[in-house]
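Renewal narrative, Specific Aim 1. Our central claim is that a sequence can be written position by position from structural information alone. The example that follows is taken directly from our test logs and has not been curated for this report. It begins with the structure tokens describing the chain, in the order in which they were read.
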């Protein structure tokens, strides 16, 4: 009996922590606009970027019931190599996913900022999207985000401006950016998600040089990828390093390829974990 309990307790603990970390896949209609529930609002903003030297656009999602009387945590949600500030809206219906999650009381009220992560004067996804200067612009976005966009958002909207109230996530190139910028700036971000992260993801030792100090700072580190995605080895490489260095993280290998079916599922699950733990 004693032996049985010794086996059972760790098993239950593990099951419990897994279910607490992973909300599970959505059901049909999770990404469709529903009538009869409260809806959020989309703003298009233009901010002056000292980093790029131009005025740049971003889209801001304000949650249902938004009011200047409250202060909100903020998620910065980034696009992929072929996208821009409208990519999530064109292909992913994040506003409907989030509205429906609010209606089900599964997420906390948050502002979601959809930036253009290609930080260069012509930031359209036109021509050769793989050109070296365009790929470099995804790296250059770190300065634009930290020094231009975040200060603009924090001045313009009623937001909680501490690291525990700031998250960063993205898909593919945006997943690489979220991991690079989030883990590289743990004084600014406590909630980090890489969805199907691209080859711009830094090598593990550069990505997280000091795992011991990161351990206590990270509230959520989510890494996920479709099992049919040829970029899966990048996420597995990050996962192996995090595991070897005992950095708590959530790893999800989900059925699917490199597409919005996977990323909508990621947003659905990741957003339910955001801004909830005490750590
Ligand atoms: C690459 C393969 C994929 C790469 C970038 C991507 C810069 C990005 C894909 C995406 O954002 O969807 O070799 O190199």
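The sequence written for that structure reads:
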């Amino acid at each position: 009996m004693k032996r049985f309990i010794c086996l059972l307790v760790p098993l239950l603990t593990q099951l419990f922590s897994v279910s607490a970390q992973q909300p599970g896949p959505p059901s049909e209609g999770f990404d469709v606009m529903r009538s009869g529930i409260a809806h959020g609002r989309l703003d298009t903003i233009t901010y002056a970027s000292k980093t790029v030297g131009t005025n740049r656009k971003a889209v801001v999602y304000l949650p249902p019931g938004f009011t200047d009387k409250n202060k909100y945590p903020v998620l910065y949600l980034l696009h992929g190599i072929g996208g821009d500030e409208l990519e999530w809206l064109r292909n992913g219906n994040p506003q409907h996913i989030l509205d429906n999650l609010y209606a089900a009381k599964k997420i906390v009220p948050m502002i979601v900022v959809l930036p253009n992560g290609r930080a260069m004067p012509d930031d359209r996804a036109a021509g050769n999207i793989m050109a070296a200067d365009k790929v470099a612009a995804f790296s250059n976005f770190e300065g634009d985000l930290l020094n231009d966009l975040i200060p603009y958002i924090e001045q313009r909207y009623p937001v909680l401006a501490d690291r525990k109230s700031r998250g960063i996530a993205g898909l593919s190139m945006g997943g690489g950016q979220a991991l690079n910028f989030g883990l590289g700036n743990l004084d600014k971000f406590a909630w980090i998600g890489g969805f199907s992260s691209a080859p711009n993801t830094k090598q593990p030792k550069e990505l997280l040089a000091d795992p011991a100090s990161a351990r206590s700072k990270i509230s959520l580190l989510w890494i996920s990828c479709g099992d049919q995605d040829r970029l899966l080895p990048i996420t597995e490489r990050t996962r192996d390093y995090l595991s070897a260095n005992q950095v708590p993280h959530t790893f999800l290998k989900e059925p699917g390829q490199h597409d919005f079916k996977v990323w909508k599922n990621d947003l659905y699950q990741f957003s339910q974990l955001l801004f909830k733990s005490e750590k």
